[in-house]
Design a protein that fits this description.
The complex is a heterodimer of chains A (about 110) and B (about 110). In chain A, about 0% of the residues lie in helices and about 50% in strands. Chain A has no helices and 11 strands. Chain A starts with a strand and ends with a strand. Chain B has no helices and 12 strands. Classes of the chains: A mainly beta (about 110), B mainly beta (about 110). At the A-B interface, strand 5, strand 9 and strand 10 of A face strand 6, strand 10 and strand 11 of B.
């Protein structure tokens, strides 16, 4: 059973470009959580999704950021018109049911904006 | 709102010795989970140990154990017989239903 797969592992974007981060949950997991880790900080919640639904997006910046988890395929975190302050590690976690008790994390995507 | 505080930004321990990492949290909930995660330089978030708040017995996983004091809202991690591979950032996390709340981490150095 493969773990939570995130790709790419490293992503470099110029200011103003779009970044797309992908997260494939573990088999049988229908709940996905996205977190951001700024340098020298802990992980901060961004959004919680279930298949085809956004359950909680209270941690998402109001502009430029969006997330989706379609019926088929990976969850996508999309950042439009990236700025230097978006440089961070982005982690996703998945769980089989609602709740984080059984959640597993992916290896993260490090986004660098130049 | 739930908050998690790790008051030790850095800790060091001699190989084979024991070290305790501190964590306190704040919540008004009665049912929740607490976690310790290890983050090595690879950045992978590795679950070290998990505690369910309604269980009074402290969780243990091999060389790792916790001291869970629910009334004091304290959740410390003890690492026994420290090994070089234990060197990493350690994050304490509170698990509500929909999300984790993480502390700022403790960087652990293991001295040979």
């Amino acid at each position: 059973n493969a773990g939570v797969m995130q790709n790419p592992r490293h992503l470099v974007r110029r200011r103003g470009q779009e970044a797309r981060l992908r997260c494939s949950p573990m088999k049988g997991h229908s709940h996905v959580y996205w977190y951001r880790q700024l340098p020298e900080e802990g992980l901060k919640f961004m959004v919680y999704l279930q298949k085809e639904n956004i359950i909680d997006e209270s941690g998402m910046p109001k502009e430029r950021f969006s997330a989706e988890f379609p019926k088929e395929g990976p969850s996508i975190l999309r950042i439009q018109q990236v700025v230097r302050g978006d440089s961070a590690a982005y982690f996703c976690a998945s769980s089989p049911l609602g709740g984080v008790a059984e959640a597993f994390f992916g290896q993260g995507t490090r986004l660098t904006v130049v | 709102a739930q908050t998690v505080t790790q008051s030790q930004p850095e800790m060091s321990v001699q190989e084979a010795e024991t070290v305790t990492l501190s964590c306190t949290y704040d919540t008004s909930e009665s049912d929740y989970y607490l976690f310790w995660y290890k983050q090595p330089p690879s950045r992978q978030m590795i679950l070290v140990i998990r505690q369910e708040a309604y269980k009074q017995q402290n969780a243990t996983e091999n060389r790792f154990s916790v001291n869970f004091q629910k009334a004091a809202k304290s959740f410390s991690l003890k690492i026994s017989d420290s090994q070089l591979g234990d060197a990493a950032m350690y994050f304490c996390a509170y698990g509500g239903y929909n999300q984790f709340y993480f502390g700022t981490g403790t960087s652990l150095t293991v001295i040979p």
